[in-house]
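S1.2 Input.
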Amino acid sequence: MFKKASQKDIKTIQDLAQKSWEHAYKNILAAEQIDYMLGLMYSEVAIAGHLANLNYHYYIILDDETPVGFVGFEINTEENTTKLHRIYFIREAHGKGFGRLALQFVIKQAAEAGDQRIILAVNKNNTAKQFYESQGFKLYDEGVFEIGNGFVMDDYLMEFIIPGI
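S1.3 Output.
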C-alpha cells in the first residue's frame, strides 16, 4: 500500500498533485495561485531536491496497484519533530480510510526515527483541519507565509504528540 518514491516516481507525484489540488483547493484558492504553487512545490527540480535529502521521504499510496495519493514528510525538521509537508489523494480515494492509514504510517516512521512530535500546516479554509483534529492533531499557532508572486499561505499550524515516546 505504501511504496517509497524515487526519482522515477516524480511524474507520478506531479500527476497526483495536479489531480488532488484541482479538487482540494478549487474553492479555496484562485486558479492562478494553484498553478503557481504547483509549479513551485512540484517542479521536477523541487521534488528531486526533496528526494536527495536523506530526512525527506515520499511514499506513493496504492490501492491495489493504482496510485491514489502520496505523502511527503521530513524527519528531524526541528529537534524531535517530523514535519508532514504533503498528504494528498485523488478524489476517488476520499472516504476509503487512506488518510487515516497514511497518518498512522507517518506517525510510525517518526517514532522509529525517535521524533516525539509531528507538525503540519493546513489552509484555514481547508476542511482537512477537521480530519486532522479527528486524528489527534491540535492547533498550536497560525501563520501567514509569503510564497512569492504576491501570494500567501494563510494556515493553521497543528501538532501531534506521539504517545509513549
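S1.4 Remarks. Helices lie at 10-25, 31-41, 44-52, 98-112, 128-134.
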